[in-house]
Amino acid sequence: MTSPSRFWEANAGRTFVGRLATGSDLVAEIERYCAEQSVVAAQVTVIGAVRSAAYAYYEQDDHGYLELASTTHHEIVGFVGNVSLRDDRPFLHAHATFADASGATVGGHLLRGCQVFAAEVMIRELADVSLVRAHDEETGLALW
Amino acid sequence: MTSPSRFWEANAGRTFVGRLATGSDLVAEIERYCAEQSVVAAQVTVIGAVRSAAYAYYEQDDHGYLELASTTHHEIVGFVGNVSLRDDRPFLHAHATFADASGATVGGHLLRGCQVFAAEVMIRELADVSLVRAHDEETGLALW
Amino acid sequence: MTSPSRFWEANAGRTFVGRLATGSDLVAEIERYCAEQSVVAAQVTVIGAVRSAAYAYYEQDDHGYLELASTTHHEIVGFVGNVSLRDDRPFLHAHATFADASGATVGGHLLRGCQVFAAEVMIRELADVSLVRAHDEETGLALW
Q1: What does the alpha-carbon distance between residue B44 and residue A27 come to, in Å, rounded to a whole number?
Q2: Whole-model pTM?
Q3: Chains touching chain A, criterion 3+ CB pairs below 8 Å
Q4: Minimal Cα–Cα distance from B123 to chain A, Å?
């Protein structure tokens, strides 16, 4: 009953590079900019630091997110992300690794609540492809 | 006796975006798709989660891989990878960071055995460049 | 008094793919190559391993870097980076996650002193955009 792997060929769209406002919400601010520019499919990376981290772990058997958070200031030391459409709006799916003052790291699926200290963002739009999230029965996730 | 740094200029090739089948092998499935599409040089990133992680640490003095593994479900919270030719086939060289239910992270060089729960993959082909792995005496690795 | 988010649209420039010399300095060597090629804005990723890691954590309240280092051999298991101009020269801003023989990870803002064991580098130039670092009062960082 498992869906096979699915791939689409895309073309390179616009490239945006930016810096987020100190104090802004990392995920919400990138989604806001993508909505403003009508970016509906993209690859996203971020380098920077947050005042607080809000992230989650998906319980694969229970099909629910376990929310984690830290108020420690963190460097963003790993980041993978993409933009697709969810409920007709640009949705940022991003996972990140955060490091604290001792270099120790934690990570997970980013939630709203990551408050930006400084963040340099690269958005590489994917043109001629439609990535629309819908409920996937097997994983419980909204996948394209 | 150390080789100097070597750089090549490439052109942008095709861009593929995809989702891997739940239960598939992360590394093998990306290599299979690259072989199917004749992708022999590319930059690869992945966001997602695995049911089990199989990775390794290279012992720089002993020139051997120390294999590590976990059957814990993990989020992929960092990923760097590329495709080149090894033994005439597309070979995925990838390192990843994995996070567990507490947010704690581990990472290393990916081996076969990372079973996909959900994985969104971006493959950016590099055209007009030839990346062929061959044994490097100094490191003991197969490098281009 | 906070600056708003700022974004620029860039065009895709040249793509360079390379391998750094064993024993070279990770950050310095990438900056040297960018200077040689007149790359002044780019997205950079690296996969590989280092003989030693030198990195830092930025104290957001004190506006100073806390330097961390390890002489343990490490795999690079997460990497985000970009090149911009600082003091009229190409400057690599990079954060990375490092894994040791047990898979345990640490990470931070990369400093000079990361000695390369093996490193595969991808440099994607951003054309038609000017990223120039200058002092930012609010964060104490050199931002564009």
Answers
A1: 23
A2: 0.98
A3: B, C
A4: 9
